Amino acid sequence: MDRRGAVGAEYAADAVRYVASRILVEGVPAGIWAEVLRLERMRVHDNFFDLGGHSLPVIRLLAAVQAAFDQEISIRTVISMPALRAVAGESERRIYEDTATMSEFEAEPLAVSNPIAGA
Q1: Residue range of the domain that includes 22
Q2: What's the confidence (pLDDT) of residue 50?
Q3: How far is CA 70 from CA 94, 95, 116, in A?
Q4: CA distances, 36 to each of 86, 90, 99, 106, 117 (Å)
Q5: pLDDT of res. 25
Q6: Residue ranges in the chain whose pLDDT is less than 70
Q7: CATH assignment of the domain containing 108
Q8: Are 32 and 73 in contact (CB under 8 A)?
Q9: How many domains does one find in the chain?
Q10: Is the pTM of this model over 0.70?
């Protein structure tokens, strides 16, 4: 069975139920996931593995997330939370933890360069 064809058909049939990313911390990973899986778009509740993800795309995903957010996400995180919204939420939690203890002086350069900040 051609999984990509089936996925494309599912997207066409499921357009009414499409749930786009609602915040930038979901939007950036959605673009990364779509690129890694070679899909036009990602819904926030999509499961990485149900859409054809396996060990090689996971490695590409982790590298792309690290490049975009300067943050490491483990394979275990993707396996235990394979939905886009869950992984994005974990990234957001980590970013918050990292910046919560920073002074304003330390955090300002991050706000300018981080894709979540909208710069």
Answers
A1: 3-117
A2: 94
A3: 11, 10, 12
A4: 17, 19, 28, 33, 23
A5: 65
A6: 1-25, 110-119
A7: 1.10.1200.10
A8: no
A9: 1
A10: no
